[in-house]
Amino acid sequence: MTRAIVLAAGKGTRMKSTRPKVLHEICGRPMLWHVLEALRAAGIAEILVVTSRELEPFLPVFGVQTVVQEPQLGTGHAVQIALAALEPRDATLVVANGDMPLVDQTLFEDAQAAVDADAGTALALVTATMPLPSSFGRIVRTGSTIRRIVEFRDCTAAERAIDEMNAGIYAFDERALRGVIGELSDANAQREYYLTDTVGLLVAQSRRVVPVQAQDYRDVLGVNDRVELALARATLNERLCHAHMRNGVTIVDPATTYLEPDVIIGEDAVIAPNTSIGAGTTIGARARIGPNARLMNAQIAADVAITDSVVVDTIVAAGTTIGPFAHLRGGNVIGADVHIGNFVELKNARLATGVKAGHLTYLGDATVGENANIGAGTITCNFDGERKNQTTIGRDAFIGSNSSLVAPVTIGDGALTGAGAVVLRDVPPGDRVVGNPSRSIASERTAST
Ligand code: UD1
Ligand code: CA
User: Is pLDDT at 85 greater than 60 in this prediction?
Assistant: First the structure.
């Protein structure tokens, strides 16, 4: 089975950050995550990440083996450390830089296939033709044969004119790699042990090094500073948008639609500008999302419309309309054909089919029955200073404007609260209460007769 080594120990000096470089995020995920995803998609499950002391504590969530490289003496030194940590095998070993978040699985598959194709091949090297200037390592060939890689800072003027670059993805015959890895030297411009020197060393032993050419150089762009980080994000975001559009989603303006991986969007959904859709979100067919919407881990059914609103950790059934300017903070389950209007905030709220909460309302820790109408300014007073309490509102209840429902409290099915009622006690089904504090109209009538 093919194993992989991912190089991630570098200081990332050009990021000017206290955060290790490969943890900087692109479309909501660390750069390193993207590289690991691509390797796994290519069928490589056994991954060893070369890490630094600063990065090491962040790696358990990635589910990889790690080895600390300290000090960091270059990519070749990183691979020396990795090989010392791995039981030798007679198999293919992929090595990849950890700072290339746009890479996709096909390059790893193609490189593996190229080295596996022929027992005489020691290395399949991924190369990419790029516009100049570029600071990537140059591929030096004589005729069509690869001879060596020259790092940008060691290049002559003539070598700088070469536009075929080393991508930073290598599929080695592990035994061939072990045969040369000890021979690296740091006699170069950066006083580092370069992994790239293994190419020249293998060629000197008459071992075969074959190129695997990337179709699109942008797949292998490295991220070394925050300008490149932003460019990589834009590229990946554009790809995600294109994939959804090709699946039948209308994205009005991809440049201002911010997507993360692991988002599912149904056919004929329309995403309006300035909208962010985070990982774990699913959106049903014909839904209309945006403009100015932010969805995180939201399950949105078909035909829902959400504008100018924030929806987090929430389930929304079909045909519901939300916004403008609603804030669904989390833990909500919203039924079908509900209307949530402007300046409505929901937290841990369950709204059954047909509920209307049109204006200026807070429903926290609340259950609302079918077709209940929540008047403007209604507040569930769910916090008594110590704990959060539950409000239950029955089906067909009518909550008058500016009602304060002091939880824990239950408003029965079909009950009514008058405008401005402060409800301190449960209201039985069908009853009406008014005032501050509220009193039952029915019992008042009884008292006056
Ligand atoms: C490297 C290649 C260059 C290639 C380019 C592609 C070398 C010497 N050069 O250059 O030919 O065109 O990638 O992006 O390999 N790292 C360690 N330990 C170290 C040094 C680096 O783990 O001691 C890691 C870094 O975290 C990074 C990767 O190796 O993820 C590449 O290192 P970096 O310094 O970014 O190399 P480049 O200068 O980009
Ligand atoms: Ca780099």
Answer: yes
Active site residues: 359
* pLDDT number for residue 441: 84
Distance 265 CA to ligand 2 centre (A): 34
In this predicted model, what pLDDT tens digit does every residue of 132-173 receive, in sequence order? 999 999 999 999 999 999 999 999 999 999 999 999 999 999
**Contact of 104 with 118, CB cutoff 8 Å:** no
Closest CA to 216 of 117, 131, 115: 131
SS3 for 398-440 is EECCCCEEECCEEECCCCEECCCCEECCCECCCCEEEECCEEE
What confidence tens digit (pLDDT) does each residue in 278-326 have?
A: 999 999 999 999 999 999 999 999 999 999 999 999 999 999 999 999 9
pLDDT of residue 11: 85
Q: Which two tokens stand for residue 237?
A: 């975001």
Q: Which two tokens stand for residue 345?
A: 């905030």
Distance 241 CA to ligand 1 centre (A): 30
* pLDDT at residue 443 is higher than 70: no
Measured CA to CA, the distance from residue 269 to residue 266 in angstroms comes to 6
Of the chain, the percentage scoring pLDDT greater than 90 comes to 97
Ligand 1 atom 19: the closest Cα is on which residue? 74
From the list 311, 314, 338, the residue with the least C-alpha distance to 326 is 311
**Ligand 1 site, CB within 6 A:** 7-10, 50, 69, 72-75, 77-78, 97-99, 136-137, 149, 151, 165-166, 168, 194-196, 222, 224
Which ligand has the minimum distance to the alpha carbon of residue 188? 1
φ and ψ at residue 83, rounded to 5 degrees? -65, -35
Ligand 1 mutation pick, 23, 32, 53, 97, max ligand atoms within 8 A of CB: 97
Residues with beta carbon < 5 A to ion ligand 2?
99, 222
Distance 118 CA to ligand 1 centre (A): 28
DSSP state of 224: -
Taking all residues of the chain, what is their mean pLDDT, rounded to a whole number? 96
| 449 has pLDDT over 80 | no
- Give the distance (Å) from ligand 2 centre to CA of residue 49: 15
Q: Does residue 446 register a pLDDT over 70? A: no
Can you name the residues that pair with 340 across neighbouring β-strands? 322, 357
